[in-house]
Amino acid sequence: MTQEVPDRVRNGQADRANGDGAQAATARRPKKGAASDYNAESIQVLEGLDPVRRRPGMYIGSTDARGLHHLVWEVVDNSIDEAMAGYATHVEVRVQEDGSVRVVDDGRGVPVGRHPSGRDALEIVHTVLHAGSKFGGGGYKVSGGLHGVGVSVVNALSEWLKVETARDGAVWGQEYSRGNPTSAVKKLGPQGDRHGTTTTFMPDSTVFETIEFSFDTIAQRLRESAYLNKGLWIRLIDDRVDRERSFYFEGGLVSFVRHLNRNKETLHARPMYVEKREGATSIEVALQYNDSYAENIFTFANNINTVDGGSHLTGFRAALTRSLNDYARRAGILKDNDANLSGDDVREGLTAVISVKLVDPQFEGQTKAKLGNAEVAGQVASAVSEGVSQYLDENPGDGRRIIEKSLIAARAREAARKARDLVIRKGALEGMSLPGKLADCQERDPAKSELYLVEGDSAGGSAKQGRDRRFQAILPLRGKLLNVEKARLDKIVSSENIRPLVIALGAGIGDSLDLAKLRYHRIIIMTDADVDGAHIRTLLLTFFFRHMPQVIENGYLFIAQPPLFRISTGKQTHYAQSEQERDTIVKRLAVKNISVQRFKGLGEMNADQLWETTMNPESRTLLRAEVEDAAEADAVFTMLMGERVEPRKDFIKTEARKVQNLDV
Ligand code: 0RA
């Protein structure tokens, strides 16, 4: 059954680049029957590991911290495949004291034994690109999907790697260095009660910019895997700091949705849950409405986060809209003459997770993060229609609340449209007139233009004086802005504070946003370094996050870093952004006629000081606002802006910015 495929050796790299390699290889031959026929003979030989070390980025995306963690995902995903196939129940990940990572599962164990090529199957899996179970067909595979490149890639990029497989009556093992065997496949002892695979590897410090694994990054990913594979135990241990987390969710996606809604008020206590098999496709959906206005849907195919959606999302949306409209008419809430609720209306305040598992997932699009299999749309739609209709019929109180919220959404959407039209018309009527408070810059090229959003009129005054008017515009914002989480789009747009901002930016808002019209590519939030400043900054971040997310996604939003202290000796002046920095500077100066001034707000700085410390591109530090992880950002914003006050206070005190450090 096994054969060398020499032309794949030549073509392998090009095929890998577009991600089609696995399918192309499978299509070449008749499929073997059941997955359980799998043995040493089934491993296919494709190509050696040189290309991986030559161009690691092609296989793991990058050689920074993100690429480094890909090594862990690759090894863990193999174990999770084994769990999805029904053989493994426990996966343990351990970051060891020396910085290496060990992954243990209790599955069937990687096959060992002589392969027709003369080498051992275990060795081939670890030293040959594209060799492995994913060509075998059968079962759902994470590792055959989006980023599944095979453990051989991990091996190639590791200073050393050791594998042990407990099966066929013994524990077998082999060791490697940078992908090359440093031992034969050896019998290490009797099998005992154990079955499964243990893989330990030390990333190669000559390949990666950093080889320090992050507990939090790994924990977050493992938590997600545990949600997506209910009943699977996943344990993470960090021997470097003696930390440990275990993940196990009997509720699977229901637990996931509860987690996503944890800081929100929900419309119904129990998430709706749909689980169905349609042919070879397994479908799982959980959803729960909350009282916010945001839509929060996460989709997965074979545990891969399909951030660009695809057929499963399409099927879900269609079915949800249809079921809710059908129910609203059945229950007499929508009358004959009433128009249907739109998809946008029924998705306001919706948190949902959709997970499908299928044998041959097709990932499409630029980032391969969109599920292509067309048949899945109908399968998901039928499962969701059935599940949601049944839930609504059995829980009419919940049904009514959800429909009423959708109706409010429909009315609000109409009001927002009118308000938007008004804003746009108003802008036009005033002859493209920009807000009176805006001190615009001379530059007209958005890529070279900056807009400072400044808290308060006095700071606005200093900023106007201190700026370089050629490319820096100033818009003072007075008082507290609206609470953007609770306020509806129509109120926000027409609020006295936000309307000038929307007009100054020039790109519109919400659905009608047109980034091509954005007048500034650096929008810089400049607030005091105190709690009020933090609050206003958070409000502005929330506003952009909710209503102009593209601005953040394109990297146009920044946060200025005004200093807290001015330290002067008469001869020299220094600025510090924290007490710690102040102390360091004072110590370094080591003269004791030092005067330290604390700025209570931007307004206390004169124009020159503000320019030098906060606005001059030569000397300032800006933070770029990033939406690293939509789920986490959503939770933070909701917590900050939502009904519950205590977590907000705590948060503001400790960490007021969800941003990543960046010197510009
Ligand atoms: C190929 C075939 C079989 C199991 C595996 C691969 C396998 C790989 C890994 C990687 C980590 N843990 C794993 N567990 C299993 C099945 C062989 C058989 O039929 O027994």
Describe the structure concisely for a colleague.
The chain has 664 residues and is α+β, with helices and mostly antiparallel strands. Helix content is 38%, strand content 20%.
List the helices and strands and how they pair.
Blueprint: H1 6-17, H2 21-27, H3 50-54, H4 56-60, H5 65-84, E1 90-95, E2 101-105, H6 121-127, H7 151-156, E3 158-167, E4 170-177, E5 180-181, E6 186-190, E7 196-203, H8 215-228, E8 233-238, E9 243-247, H9 253-260, E10 272-278, E11 281-289, E12 296-301, E13 304-305, H10 311-330, H11 343-346, E14 350-357, E15 363-364, E16 370-371, H12 375-394, H13 396-429, E17 450-455, H14 457-466, E18 472-477, H15 489-494, H16 498-505, E19 522-526, H17 531-547, H18 549-553, E20 557-560, E21 565-568, E22 573-576, H19 579-589, E23 595-598, H20 607-615, E24 622-625, H21 630-641, H22 646-654, E25 659-660
Parallel strand pairs: 1-8, 12-14, 17-18, 17-19, 19-20
Antiparallel strand pairs: 1-2, 2-7, 3-4, 3-7, 4-5, 4-6, 8-9, 10-11, 11-14, 12-13, 15-16, 20-24, 21-22, 21-23, 24-25
The structure holds 3-[3-(1H-pyrrolo[2,3-b]pyridin-5-yl)phenyl]propanoic acid.
Describe this entry's structure for a reader.
With 664 residues, the protein is α+β, with helices and mostly antiparallel strands. The chain has 4 domains: 1-27, no CATH class; 55-247, Histidine kinase-like ATPase, C-terminal domain (Heat Shock Protein 90); 253-411, 2-Layer Sandwich (Ribosomal Protein S5, domain 2); 434-562 and 623-632, 3-Layer(aba) Sandwich (Rossmann fold). Helix content is 38%, strand content 20%. It has 22 helices and 25 strands. The strands form 5 sheets. Strands 1, 2, 3, 4, 5, 6, 7, 8 and 9 form a 9-stranded mixed beta sheet that branches. Strands 18-17-19-20-24-25 form a 6-stranded mixed beta sheet, sandwiched between helices. Helix 5 (65-84) runs parallel beside helix 8. The radius of gyration is 29 Å and the shape is flat.
